[in-house]
Design a protein that fits this description.
Oligomer: single chain
Helix content: 40-55%
Length: 327
Protein backbone atom coordinates (compact mmCIF):
# COMPACT_ATOMS: atom_id res chain seq x y z
CA UNK A 1 0.00 0.00 0.00
CA UNK A 2 3.02 2.32 -0.18
CA UNK A 3 3.97 2.43 3.50
CA UNK A 4 7.69 3.04 2.91
CA UNK A 5 7.12 5.80 0.36
CA UNK A 6 4.61 7.38 2.74
CA UNK A 7 7.20 7.48 5.53
CA UNK A 8 9.82 9.09 3.28
CA UNK A 9 7.22 11.64 2.16
CA UNK A 10 6.43 12.33 5.81
CA UNK A 11 10.13 12.80 6.57
CA UNK A 12 10.45 15.21 3.64
CA UNK A 13 7.83 17.48 5.20
CA UNK A 14 9.32 17.12 8.68
CA UNK A 15 12.69 18.24 7.35
CA UNK A 16 11.16 21.04 5.30
CA UNK A 17 9.27 22.44 8.27
CA UNK A 18 12.11 21.67 10.72
CA UNK A 19 9.67 20.09 13.18
CA UNK A 20 11.67 16.94 13.89
CA UNK A 21 14.48 14.72 12.67
CA UNK A 22 13.37 11.56 10.87
CA UNK A 23 15.47 8.38 10.83
CA UNK A 24 14.58 5.44 8.60
CA UNK A 25 15.84 1.93 9.36
CA UNK A 26 15.04 -1.10 7.19
CA UNK A 27 15.44 -4.47 8.93
CA UNK A 28 14.74 -6.49 5.79
CA UNK A 29 17.58 -8.96 5.34
CA UNK A 30 18.71 -8.85 8.97
CA UNK A 31 18.88 -12.21 10.73
CA UNK A 32 19.98 -11.36 14.27
CA UNK A 33 19.72 -8.76 17.00
CA UNK A 34 23.34 -7.84 16.37
CA UNK A 35 22.63 -7.04 12.70
CA UNK A 36 19.57 -4.99 13.67
CA UNK A 37 21.63 -3.02 16.19
CA UNK A 38 24.22 -2.28 13.52
CA UNK A 39 21.56 -1.14 11.03
CA UNK A 40 20.12 1.24 13.61
CA UNK A 41 23.56 2.58 14.53
CA UNK A 42 24.45 3.14 10.87
CA UNK A 43 21.22 5.05 10.28
CA UNK A 44 21.83 7.27 13.35
CA UNK A 45 25.39 8.03 12.31
CA UNK A 46 24.39 8.75 8.71
CA UNK A 47 21.77 11.21 9.92
CA UNK A 48 23.71 13.08 12.60
CA UNK A 49 27.43 12.63 12.04
CA UNK A 50 29.26 14.82 9.52
CA UNK A 51 32.81 13.51 9.71
CA UNK A 52 34.10 16.32 7.52
CA UNK A 53 33.39 18.73 10.39
CA UNK A 54 35.01 16.61 13.06
CA UNK A 55 33.46 14.62 15.87
CA UNK A 56 32.36 16.09 19.17
CA UNK A 57 32.85 14.41 22.52
CA UNK A 58 29.24 13.20 22.73
CA UNK A 59 29.46 11.55 19.33
CA UNK A 60 32.79 9.93 20.15
CA UNK A 61 31.35 8.61 23.39
CA UNK A 62 28.39 7.12 21.54
CA UNK A 63 30.63 5.55 18.88
CA UNK A 64 32.70 3.88 21.56
CA UNK A 65 29.59 2.51 23.25
CA UNK A 66 28.22 0.96 20.07
CA UNK A 67 31.48 -0.62 18.99
CA UNK A 68 32.24 1.77 16.11
CA UNK A 69 35.69 3.16 15.32
CA UNK A 70 36.80 6.01 13.10
CA UNK A 71 39.35 5.35 10.37
CA UNK A 72 40.42 6.49 6.92
CA UNK A 73 39.15 4.98 3.68
CA UNK A 74 42.33 3.82 1.87
CA UNK A 75 40.77 4.52 -1.54
CA UNK A 76 39.14 7.92 -1.07
CA UNK A 77 41.15 9.18 1.90
CA UNK A 78 37.91 10.20 3.55
CA UNK A 79 37.02 9.36 7.16
CA UNK A 80 34.99 6.18 7.52
CA UNK A 81 33.34 4.28 10.34
CA UNK A 82 33.80 0.58 10.93
CA UNK A 83 31.85 -1.62 13.29
CA UNK A 84 33.37 -4.33 15.40
CA UNK A 85 31.56 -7.43 16.62
CA UNK A 86 29.07 -6.72 19.41
CA UNK A 87 28.17 -9.63 21.67
CA UNK A 88 24.49 -10.24 22.33
CA UNK A 89 24.65 -9.27 25.98
CA UNK A 90 26.22 -5.92 24.98
CA UNK A 91 23.38 -4.96 22.60
CA UNK A 92 21.07 -3.44 25.28
CA UNK A 93 23.94 -1.17 26.35
CA UNK A 94 24.57 -0.21 22.70
CA UNK A 95 20.91 0.70 22.19
CA UNK A 96 20.98 2.57 25.50
CA UNK A 97 23.92 4.68 24.27
CA UNK A 98 22.07 5.47 21.04
CA UNK A 99 18.98 6.43 23.03
CA UNK A 100 20.90 8.76 25.32
CA UNK A 101 22.49 10.45 22.33
CA UNK A 102 19.11 11.01 20.66
CA UNK A 103 17.48 12.09 23.91
CA UNK A 104 19.90 14.99 24.17
CA UNK A 105 19.05 16.35 20.73
CA UNK A 106 17.31 19.72 20.77
CA UNK A 107 15.00 18.68 17.94
CA UNK A 108 12.54 15.80 18.48
CA UNK A 109 13.58 12.54 16.84
CA UNK A 110 11.32 10.02 15.10
CA UNK A 111 12.71 6.58 14.26
CA UNK A 112 10.81 4.51 11.71
CA UNK A 113 11.78 0.83 11.70
CA UNK A 114 10.59 -0.91 8.53
CA UNK A 115 9.95 -4.65 8.21
CA UNK A 116 9.96 -4.88 11.99
CA UNK A 117 8.43 -8.36 11.90
CA UNK A 118 11.93 -9.63 11.07
CA UNK A 119 12.76 -9.65 14.79
CA UNK A 120 10.42 -12.63 15.25
CA UNK A 121 12.84 -14.74 13.21
CA UNK A 122 15.95 -13.75 15.15
CA UNK A 123 17.60 -16.60 17.08
CA UNK A 124 17.63 -14.45 20.24
CA UNK A 125 14.40 -15.16 22.10
CA UNK A 126 14.69 -11.80 23.88
CA UNK A 127 14.70 -9.71 20.67
CA UNK A 128 11.19 -8.29 21.05
CA UNK A 129 11.70 -7.60 24.76
CA UNK A 130 15.02 -5.85 24.03
CA UNK A 131 13.35 -3.42 21.63
CA UNK A 132 10.41 -2.90 24.00
CA UNK A 133 12.74 -1.99 26.88
CA UNK A 134 14.65 0.39 24.61
CA UNK A 135 11.63 2.45 23.58
CA UNK A 136 10.32 2.52 27.16
CA UNK A 137 13.53 4.09 28.42
CA UNK A 138 13.40 7.00 25.97
CA UNK A 139 9.84 8.35 25.79
CA UNK A 140 11.02 11.58 24.10
CA UNK A 141 12.17 9.59 21.06
CA UNK A 142 9.18 8.57 18.94
CA UNK A 143 9.04 5.22 17.18
CA UNK A 144 7.05 4.03 14.17
CA UNK A 145 7.09 0.30 13.40
CA UNK A 146 6.18 -0.82 9.90
CA UNK A 147 5.77 -4.25 8.38
CA UNK A 148 4.53 -5.82 5.17
CA UNK A 149 3.60 -9.14 6.80
CA UNK A 150 0.29 -8.14 8.28
CA UNK A 151 -0.52 -11.17 10.44
CA UNK A 152 2.93 -11.18 12.06
CA UNK A 153 2.75 -7.48 12.89
CA UNK A 154 -0.74 -7.85 14.35
CA UNK A 155 0.33 -10.75 16.55
CA UNK A 156 3.38 -8.84 17.83
CA UNK A 157 1.34 -5.85 18.97
CA UNK A 158 -1.99 -7.38 19.97
CA UNK A 159 -1.21 -10.63 21.81
CA UNK A 160 -1.20 -10.29 25.58
CA UNK A 161 1.86 -12.50 26.03
CA UNK A 162 4.08 -10.39 23.72
CA UNK A 163 6.33 -7.54 24.97
CA UNK A 164 4.77 -4.94 22.65
CA UNK A 165 1.18 -5.63 23.74
CA UNK A 166 -0.71 -2.31 23.94
CA UNK A 167 2.49 -0.30 23.66
CA UNK A 168 1.56 1.43 20.40
CA UNK A 169 -1.32 2.78 18.39
CA UNK A 170 -2.15 0.44 15.51
CA UNK A 171 -2.75 1.87 12.06
CA UNK A 172 -3.68 -0.03 8.92
CA UNK A 173 -3.02 1.48 5.50
CA UNK A 174 -6.11 1.04 3.35
CA UNK A 175 -6.33 1.80 -0.37
CA UNK A 176 -6.56 5.48 -1.27
CA UNK A 177 -10.11 6.76 -1.97
CA UNK A 178 -10.83 6.19 -5.66
CA UNK A 179 -12.16 9.69 -6.33
CA UNK A 180 -9.13 11.36 -4.76
CA UNK A 181 -6.68 9.05 -6.52
CA UNK A 182 -8.38 9.54 -9.89
CA UNK A 183 -8.31 13.31 -9.44
CA UNK A 184 -4.59 13.20 -8.66
CA UNK A 185 -3.74 10.97 -11.65
CA UNK A 186 -5.71 13.08 -14.14
CA UNK A 187 -4.25 16.35 -12.84
CA UNK A 188 -0.70 14.97 -13.07
CA UNK A 189 -1.21 13.90 -16.68
CA UNK A 190 -2.82 17.26 -17.52
CA UNK A 191 0.08 19.15 -15.96
CA UNK A 192 2.38 17.75 -18.66
CA UNK A 193 -0.01 18.11 -21.58
CA UNK A 194 -1.25 14.50 -21.50
CA UNK A 195 -4.66 13.01 -20.86
CA UNK A 196 -6.11 9.83 -19.42
CA UNK A 197 -9.83 9.05 -19.26
CA UNK A 198 -11.71 8.00 -16.11
CA UNK A 199 -12.63 4.77 -17.92
CA UNK A 200 -8.98 3.80 -18.27
CA UNK A 201 -8.23 4.76 -14.67
CA UNK A 202 -11.07 2.54 -13.48
CA UNK A 203 -9.60 -0.34 -15.51
CA UNK A 204 -6.26 0.28 -13.75
CA UNK A 205 -7.91 0.41 -10.32
CA UNK A 206 -9.73 -2.89 -10.91
CA UNK A 207 -6.67 -4.67 -12.29
CA UNK A 208 -4.34 -3.50 -9.51
CA UNK A 209 -6.96 -3.86 -6.74
CA UNK A 210 -5.97 -0.33 -5.71
CA UNK A 211 -2.52 -1.42 -4.49
CA UNK A 212 -0.58 1.83 -4.53
CA UNK A 213 2.67 0.45 -5.93
CA UNK A 214 1.01 -1.20 -8.94
CA UNK A 215 -1.24 1.78 -9.68
CA UNK A 216 1.90 3.92 -9.70
CA UNK A 217 3.77 1.42 -11.89
CA UNK A 218 1.02 1.20 -14.51
CA UNK A 219 0.49 4.96 -14.62
CA UNK A 220 4.23 5.55 -14.88
CA UNK A 221 4.45 3.32 -17.96
CA UNK A 222 1.34 4.89 -19.52
CA UNK A 223 2.78 8.36 -18.88
CA UNK A 224 5.85 7.38 -20.91
CA UNK A 225 3.80 6.21 -23.90
CA UNK A 226 3.75 8.55 -26.91
CA UNK A 227 0.65 7.01 -28.49
CA UNK A 228 -2.91 8.08 -27.69
CA UNK A 229 -4.10 6.29 -24.58
CA UNK A 230 -7.06 3.95 -24.94
CA UNK A 231 -8.22 0.71 -23.33
CA UNK A 232 -6.00 -1.40 -25.61
CA UNK A 233 -2.89 0.54 -24.62
CA UNK A 234 -3.72 0.02 -20.94
CA UNK A 235 -4.15 -3.74 -21.48
CA UNK A 236 -0.84 -3.77 -23.40
CA UNK A 237 0.93 -2.16 -20.42
CA UNK A 238 -0.57 -4.80 -18.11
CA UNK A 239 0.90 -7.50 -20.33
CA UNK A 240 4.29 -5.75 -20.47
CA UNK A 241 4.48 -5.56 -16.68
CA UNK A 242 3.57 -9.24 -16.23
CA UNK A 243 6.12 -10.34 -18.85
CA UNK A 244 8.88 -8.63 -16.89
CA UNK A 245 8.03 -10.64 -13.77
CA UNK A 246 7.56 -14.10 -15.33
CA UNK A 247 11.12 -15.36 -14.54
CA UNK A 248 10.54 -14.57 -10.84
CA UNK A 249 7.00 -15.92 -10.69
CA UNK A 250 7.92 -19.12 -12.52
CA UNK A 251 10.38 -19.97 -9.76
CA UNK A 252 7.55 -20.11 -7.20
CA UNK A 253 6.27 -23.39 -8.62
CA UNK A 254 9.59 -25.07 -7.80
CA UNK A 255 9.45 -23.80 -4.22
CA UNK A 256 5.95 -25.12 -3.51
CA UNK A 257 4.48 -28.61 -3.28
CA UNK A 258 2.00 -29.71 -5.94
CA UNK A 259 -0.95 -29.20 -3.57
CA UNK A 260 0.28 -25.73 -2.50
CA UNK A 261 0.71 -24.69 -6.13
CA UNK A 262 -2.75 -25.91 -7.16
CA UNK A 263 -4.31 -24.10 -4.21
CA UNK A 264 -2.43 -20.89 -5.03
CA UNK A 265 -3.66 -21.01 -8.63
CA UNK A 266 -7.22 -21.75 -7.47
CA UNK A 267 -7.33 -18.80 -5.06
CA UNK A 268 -5.88 -16.59 -7.81
CA UNK A 269 -8.58 -17.53 -10.27
CA UNK A 270 -11.30 -17.00 -7.65
CA UNK A 271 -9.58 -13.74 -6.52
CA UNK A 272 -11.28 -13.94 -3.11
CA UNK A 273 -12.36 -17.07 -1.24
CA UNK A 274 -14.57 -17.01 1.84
CA UNK A 275 -14.41 -20.75 2.50
CA UNK A 276 -11.54 -22.62 0.83
CA UNK A 277 -12.82 -25.86 2.39
CA UNK A 278 -16.26 -25.71 0.75
CA UNK A 279 -17.14 -28.56 -1.58
CA UNK A 280 -18.01 -26.09 -4.33
CA UNK A 281 -14.54 -24.51 -4.29
CA UNK A 282 -12.71 -27.83 -3.98
CA UNK A 283 -14.64 -29.40 -6.85
CA UNK A 284 -14.44 -26.39 -9.18
CA UNK A 285 -10.63 -26.33 -9.01
CA UNK A 286 -10.00 -30.07 -8.59
CA UNK A 287 -8.33 -29.76 -5.19
CA UNK A 288 -9.49 -33.04 -3.68
CA UNK A 289 -10.45 -33.44 -0.03
CA UNK A 290 -10.54 -30.51 2.40
CA UNK A 291 -8.08 -32.26 4.72
CA UNK A 292 -5.45 -32.30 1.97
CA UNK A 293 -5.38 -28.51 1.56
CA UNK A 294 -5.42 -27.52 5.24
CA UNK A 295 -1.63 -27.73 5.65
CA UNK A 296 -1.09 -26.24 2.19
CA UNK A 297 -3.16 -23.15 3.07
CA UNK A 298 -1.29 -22.67 6.36
CA UNK A 299 1.99 -22.85 4.48
CA UNK A 300 0.92 -20.28 1.87
CA UNK A 301 -0.21 -17.91 4.63
CA UNK A 302 3.08 -18.39 6.50
CA UNK A 303 4.99 -17.50 3.34
CA UNK A 304 2.77 -14.41 2.88
CA UNK A 305 1.69 -15.59 -0.56
CA UNK A 306 -1.89 -15.75 0.69
CA UNK A 307 -3.42 -13.41 3.27
CA UNK A 308 -6.63 -13.64 5.28
CA UNK A 309 -8.24 -10.21 5.21
CA UNK A 310 -11.84 -9.14 5.83
CA UNK A 311 -12.85 -12.78 6.35
CA UNK A 312 -11.58 -13.74 2.88
CA UNK A 313 -8.48 -15.44 1.51
CA UNK A 314 -6.67 -13.76 -1.36
CA UNK A 315 -3.18 -13.36 -2.79
CA UNK A 316 -0.89 -10.78 -1.22
CA UNK A 317 0.72 -9.89 -4.56
CA UNK A 318 -1.80 -8.71 -7.15
CA UNK A 319 0.67 -9.00 -10.03
CA UNK A 320 1.36 -12.65 -9.15
CA UNK A 321 -2.40 -13.22 -9.04
CA UNK A 322 -2.88 -11.70 -12.52
CA UNK A 323 -0.18 -13.93 -13.95
CA UNK A 324 -1.61 -17.07 -12.37
CA UNK A 325 -5.04 -16.21 -13.76
CA UNK A 326 -3.58 -16.58 -17.24
CA UNK A 327 -2.42 -20.15 -16.66
Amino acid sequence: MGKTALIHHFFHHLNKEKQAEGIYVDLLGTSSLSEANRKIAEAIIKQFVDMRKGLGSRILQMLGSIGATLGIDPVTGMPQLTFGHIRNHDIPASLEAIGRFLNEKKTPVIICIDEFQQVINYPEKSAEATFRTWIQNFPMVRFVFLGSQRHMMISMFSEKTRPFYRSTQLMQLDPLPEKEYMKFIRSFFRKYGKSIDPTQINIIFNWTRMQTYYVQLVCNKLFGRKDQLDDDVVIDVFSEIIQQEIPLFSAYQKLLTKVQWKLLVAISKAEEVSNPYSQEFLTKYGLGAASSINAALDNLIRKELVIHHNQKYTLHDTLLMRWLQQL
